[in-house]
Write a structure and sequence with these properties.
Blueprint: H1 2-37, E1 49-50, E2 56-57, H2 69-75, H3 80-88, H4 101-108, H5 116-121, E3 126-128, H6 135-144, H7 149-155, E4 161-163, H8 176-188, H9 192-208
Parallel strand pairs: 3-4
Antiparallel strand pairs: 1-2
Helix pairs in contact: 1-4, 7-8
Transmembrane segments: 12-34
Protein name: Undecaprenyl-phosphate galactose phosphotransferase
Family: Belongs to the bacterial sugar transferase family.
Amino acid sequence: MIYKKYFKRIIDLIGAIILFVIFFPISVVTAILIKLDSKGPIFADVPERIGEKGRKFKMYKFRSMIINAHFLLRTDPKLKKLFKEYKKSSYKLKKDPRVTRVGKFIRKHSLDEIPQLLNIIKGEMSLVGPRAYYPDELDNQLIKYPYAKKLVKKVLSVKPGITGLWQVSGRSEINFDKRIAIDAKYIDNISLWEDVKIIIKTPLVMLNGKGAI
């Protein structure tokens, strides 16, 4: 498809640059609030994600949790029960004690995702696409949902997106098997019109914060 192969990247690049300019003032305020609210870097200290064709990349996100939150969840004995709940609920937690005060707000309205515009400019992500998973998350989910293996392969054939069909269809309220099916459906129907519809819906989802964690 001509759009998927050529024009999607052009639109991604132009769109990311425009959005970077628009969101720059908000990003500055967000960064200041993060530093005032808790100790630690502005950006999240998380492991690499899996991108197109299984290639790993560093996803940029504003920090919404305490320092070493990802590592602590997997290694701290005090969080063992929480980690089990995390895996059971498709790697999402409705009540996560690791989230900071400012973090709750920026996660609810997806402001923590703004730095991913840099990933788009670098060619690692797209404006619209499937979710980018952690390697261990994907491995464990496939143990739980082995029948989703073919869908995962399809999802990893394209660049992950800042927003996507599953994000505007329920966000974190959707479990992995349904989420991966929705992303696979998007890939089967990639077009300029589908991307435009998802982009138009995204600000509304960001404002009401429905399904966010």
